[in-house]
Specification:
9 helices, alpha/beta, 25% strand, single chain, Glucose Oxidase, domain 1
């Protein structure tokens, strides 16, 4: 075999192994979780309305939490927290320690929630962590902070929501504090196991102890609105239909 053919064979074998590795990655949803399956049938907006009505508290994140890599996210949260510090405490080994551990131990279908406190000018996620999240079968990532390496993340087709896009790193600036702890993300408390629903309208969080009630109400909202549409088209009046259904 010639040297060129030998090199080609090694390259081809490597590509096949890489492809096989990604094909063998866990599926991004857990069909055994009926609550996650249920929220997959509704929207972040209906879930936010249901949170208002059932729990009586805000469940939606701030308006600047936007899809940088579009795609619907529904799953249970795993969390990581980073905090601003001095360069000597933000070494490469310490800066993203808990974020990396969190993603490395995440289960298929979970949602990584990363909070970089007051960190809109630093990236809490980049290409390497995104690649790991995809390989682990995470359904998406939500970051209270920045994200970078968008071109690479776009190729992964991993839904990512963040409050900013920046080229900078947390190394030398922010230190890892902990993972799988309660965090404050986009103005809402997120705890491990809480439900995350994200889409073009934004991100909604549902506390795990109220998830069944909120899901039931969200589905009721969707059903009622779907019944309202034909009446609106017929009456050509939203006022009349609101009176009919006692809802907007």
């Amino acid at each position: 075999m010639t040297r060129n053919r030998l090199l080609f064979s090694f390259a081809l074998a490597g590509a096949v192994l890489t492809l096989a590795g990604f094909q063998a990655a866990p599926k991004p949803q857990n069909p055994a979780d009926p609550i996650v399956a249920g929220f997959s049938k509704t929207t972040e907006s209906s879930a936010a309305d249901a949170m208002d009505q059932v729990v009586g508290q805000r469940g939606f994140m701030t308006h600047d939490m936007r899809p940088r890599i579009p795609g619907k996210i529904v799953g249970r949260a795993v969390t990581a927290l980073l905090r601003e510090t001095t360069p000597d405490k933000a070494t490469p080994a310490l800066s993203a320690k808990h974020s990396v551990e969190m993603i490395d131990n995440a289960k298929p279908g979970e949602v990584a929630v990363i909070v970089v406190e007051n960190g809109l000018d630093v990236a809490g996620l980049g290409g390497l962590m995104g690649t790991t999240a995809k390989a682990r079968g995470l359904t998406g990532v939500v970051i209270d902070g920045g994200v970078r390496d968008l071109e690479e993340l776009r190729r992964l087709k991993l839904p990512v929501y963040s409050r900013s896009v920046v080229p900078s790193t947390t190394v030398g600036r922010w230190a890892s504090v902990g993972n799988n702890i309660p965090v404050r993300c986009g103005g809402v408390t997120v705890r491990p196991g809480d439900i995350i629903i994200a889409g073009e309208d934004g991100v909604t969080v549902v506390p795990k102890e109220r998830e069944a009630e909120v899901l039931k109400r969200a589905l009721e909202i969707d059903e009622r609105e779907s019944k309202m549409i034909p009446h609106i088209l017929k009456e050509k009046s939203l006022t009349k239909v609101i009176q009919m259904f006692n809802r907007i």
